[in-house]
Automatic annotation (TrEMBL):
The protein, known as: Ribosome production factor 2 homolog
GO process terms (BP): maturation of LSU-rRNA from tricistronic rRNA transcript (SSU-rRNA, 5.8S rRNA, LSU-rRNA); ribosomal large subunit assembly
Assigned protein family: Belongs to the RPF2 family.
Region named Disordered: 261-311
InterPro entries, per the entry: Brix (IPR007109), Rpf2 (IPR039770)
Biased composition (Basic residues): 299-311
Keywords noted in UniProt: Nucleus
Brix domain segment(s): 30-249
Localisation per UniProt entry: Nucleus, Nucleolus
Cellular-component GO terms for this entry: nucleolus
């Protein structure tokens, strides 16, 4: 039985709010919820604080403890996601068996799609790095350094998660002046005894280095400016522990796309509509056709100088 009752709209404002939560042809930017478990370590709390800062303003922070166990019972996470209209959850946990634990969860149609469990092996906070920080809501560049992110199933899942959390919608063009920081994710080489296709992620001791740098552009004498990177923080070392892959049928539904032209998707129009287009500034412009007007019948203000003479 669902934990949320079906809401019948009482007025137009509530109806519009409910329609925004329904499946859309073009999805909105994904909101992430940061959830604290019953037991969390200081390292996990600090790590979640900085990951939350990078995700803002599309982030919700749960400061209170919650009795959640993502791999055992997903009902609480599904309730949080539906109530807050969010499709991403980052849960912080800590136990003797799995210390400094971070669980990433994706939702689809109100249910858990897949999960990835990471261990926070090393952490340096953003506040410990004396440098200029990026602006709130600035969109980062994300770079992955390793062939494992294209070949190993667990690393492919991790790449997909971080792109969903921080990359947002794909864009064909982006002004250089709007780029303020870059997220670099590097995977250490796997030991030769571990294959890249069949070995379980829980037996994988390789570290994944999560680094964030600010970008400064300077003149290079050519059209392409010179780029300088300065560490911004946070600096995190992850290990992959457990994964829960999506069911084939559910993943097929999640990846299903409507038949919309790429140009229309990028302009945000969805299905092409007649006489409506988006200009270079991103504003929606419409053309209205009116019948021919007879200005001689236009009612104007009665002024003494405009009155016809009696003669």
């Amino acid at each position: 039985m669902s934990m949320l009752r079906t809401v019948k709209p009482k007025n137009a404002r509530v109806k519009r709010a409910l329609e925004k939560r329904e499946p859309q042809l073009i999805e909105n930017e994904k909101t992430a919820i940061f959830v604290r478990g019953q037991n969390t370590s200081q390292r996990v709390r600090d790590c979640m604080k900085d990951l939350y800062a990078l995700k803002r303003p599309l982030a919700i922070n749960f400061s209170h403890k919650n009795d959640v166990h993502p791999f055992d019972d997903t009902s609480s996470l599904e309730f949080f996601a539906r109530k807050n209209d969010a499709s991403l959850l980052i849960t912080g946990l800590h136990s003797k068996k799995r210390p400094h634990d971070l669980v990433l969860t994706r939702m689809f149609d109100g249910r858990v799609l897949d999960m990835l469990e990471l261990g926070v092996e090393g952490f340096r906070a953003m506040s410990d790095v004396p440098s200029v920080k990026s602006s709130l809501g600035a969109r980062p560049l994300i770079v992955f350094h390793s062939d494992l992110f294209d070949t190993h199933p667990s690393y492919q899942l991790l790449k997909s998660f971080f792109l969903d959390i921080y990359n947002g919608h794909s864009l064909s063009e982006l002004p250089l002046t709007s780029i303020e920081h870059v997220i670099s994710i590097t995977a250490s080489p796997l030991p030769s005894s571990i294959t890249t296709t069949s070995e379980a992620a829980s037996q994988n001791p390789a570290l994944i280095h999560f680094r964030v740098y600010t970008i400064k552009l300077s003149s290079s004498g050519t059209k392409i400016p010179e780029m300088q990177l300065t560490e911004m923080g946070p600096s995190i070392d992850f290990t992959i522990r457990r994964t829960k892959e999506a069911e084939d049928e559910m993943m097929k539904m999640a990846l299903k796309r409507p038949k919309i032209d790429k140009k229309d998707v990028e302009s945000g129009l969805g299905k092409k509509r007649k006489n409506i287009e988006t200009d270079e500034m991103g504003d929606k412009v419409g053309r209205i056709h009116l019948d021919k007007q007879d200005l001689s019948k236009l009612q104007s203000r009665k002024m003494k100088g405009l009155k016809k003479s009696r003669g």
